[in-house]
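We emphasize that the prediction below concerns an isolated chain of 491 residues; any contacts that depend on oligomerization or on bound cofactors are therefore not represented. The input was used exactly as deposited, without trimming of termini.
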Amino acid sequence: MKRGSLARILLAAAVLGLAGCEVGPDFRAPQDPSDASYAPPGPAPASSGPAPLAFALGGEVRGDWWTQFHCAPLDGLVQQAIAGSWTLESARAHLAQAQEAVTVASSALLPQLNLSASAAREKLTPASFGLPAGALALPPNFNLLQVGPVASYSLDLFGATRRRIEQAQALAQMQAEGLKAGYLALTGNTVLQAIALATLNAQRQALTDILALDRRNLELVRTANRVGTVPGTDVVAAQTQLAQDQTLLPPLEQAQVATTDALALLLGRAPGPWSPPSMSLDDFGSLAQVPVSLPSQLVHQRPDILAAEAQLHASSAQVGVATAALYPDVSLSAFINGSSLNGSNLFSASNIAWSIAAGLTQPIFDGHLRQAQRREALALYRAYAADYQQTVLAAFRQVADVLHSVRHDEELLAADQAALDSAAHDVELQRAAYANGGSGILGLLDAQRQYQQATMQYVRARGQRLQDMAQLLVAMGGGTTRTLAPTRGLR
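Result of the prediction step, given as a C-alpha cell string:
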C-alpha cells in the first residue's frame, strides 16, 4: 500500500472518530425545590427563656461547626476522632479506588500500543503452501523469531467509552460525598456522645448533692428523735429515702461507662486504656444564633442528597452505555514486526511484515440481550430518581423536626428552671417547718422527691438542648465542603 493511501485511511478514521455522537440521555440535575421554609406558615413557639435562640435563615454552616460550642475538651475529642477514625480511612480508600477507576475508563479513549514478541519451533511441508510433496526443499525443523509493536484503537462512534467515563466520574463523586457523609456522621456522633457524657456527669453531680441533702435530712430527724420530738418511724422514713436515692447511682455509673466506650470507638481506640477528659455542661457555650440553610441550598450541601444525585447521574450514564451497545463498534488495528529464523537481520527490510486493518461489529441477533440490558438500565434510572426524591424529603423532614425540637427546648428549659427553683425553695421551707415541729416527715420527704425529679429533669433538658442544636448543625450539612486528608497506606 502506498504511503498516500495509508494517510487517507488514517485521516478518514480520525474524521469518523471526531464525528461520533454520544447516544443516550445527557444528565440534568434535578430541579431545586421551590419550598421557602421547612415549616407551614404560622407563629413560632414563643420562648420564655432568658436568651431565646435566633435562626439565621440562609446562613452557612462552618466546616468546624462543633467549635461554635466554645468547648475546648470537645474540640480535642473531635480532632482525635477525625485523626483516628478507621471509618474515615475506609471511605478515603474507597474514594481513591473510584478515582483510579476514572483513569481506567479514560484510558480507552487513547490508542493502545503493545510490544509483541514470540519464539517458535516449527516444521512446514509443501502442502502448507498448497504444493505437492517434493515441490519445495524445506528444512525439516526451524526456529522462527518475531518481534514488533501492535496498535489498536476504538473509534467510539456512539459514545460508549465516553459514557463509561461519565459513569466512573459520577461514581467517584458519589464516593466523595460518602466520605463527607462519614465525616459528618463521625463529628456529629462524637459531639452527641460528648454532650451525653457531660449530661451524665451533671446528673451524677446532682445526685451527689441530693444524697448529701438526704443525709442532712436524716441527721435532722435523728436529732429530733434523740430529744423526743419525733417518733422513730420518721428516722426509718428518712433512711428509706436515702437508700432509694442511692439506688439511682449504679445505673448512672453504667451509662457513663457505656458512653465512654462509645466515645473511644469513635476515636478509633480500645475502650480499656482510654479515659475521656473531664467535661460538664457548663463547659458548653450556648449558640446565640444558628445558621439555617434554605431548602434550595440544602440540596447542594447535604452529602446524602449529593450522593443520591451522583448515583442518579451514574445510572443515566449506564443508559447511554446500554444504548451505544445497540450500534456498530468500529475499531482500527495495525502491527509491524520483523521475522528471522536465526535472530540475524531481524529488522532488515526483507524481513519486515506489517498490516493495517479496520473492523466493524454490528449486533444482529443476541436473544434480545442488548435491548433487555437497556430496559434494565432505564428501570434502574427511574428507581434512583425516586430514591433521590425520597432522600430530599427525608432530609427536609429531619431539618423540620430538629427545628421544632430546638424551639421547644427553649420553653422546656425555662419551665424546668422555674420548677427547680420552686422545688428547692419548698425543700427549705419544709425542712424549717419540720425542725420547728410545724409539719411531719412526709411533707419534707415529698418536697425532697419533687426536688430530685426537678433537678434531674433540668439537667436532662440542658443536655437535650445542646444535642438538638448539634443535630441541627449536622442536618444542615455540617460544612462538609471542608477538605479531607487523603488516605494513608500503600502507594
